[in-house]
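Subject: sequence -> structure tokens, single chain

Hey, anyone have a minute? Need the predicted structure for the following. Not urgent.
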Amino acid sequence: MKAISGNHIPKLQNFKPHVPWPAFMEKKLCHAFWRHLKHADEQIRDFRRIIGFKEARGVTIVINDGSPSLTSEMVHAFLTRELGKLPNTDAIIYLSDGLVKYEMATIYNEKNA
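Reply:
Had a minute. Here:
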């Protein structure tokens, strides 16, 4: 396994993929976040079942400290779309220490508001 650090956005912007850029970014975000979101959703489900708090709100906190140049707009759009696929998660709190000193966003599921 090889770890790569640094800002690769300028190189990626010049790359001419066979996949359109929005679809490429969607795949990358899915790869980076989905497994963790699904695991958090399962933890919320299990907590409600074991403890017996069926009405408890499920909140997932996502902390991005590995990709500081990833724009929050892309992540917010992705998380908003994915929230609908997580039946036990009512809200996602996204924290990033990136290009601006500190960002925070709360994304919630309106059907449970």
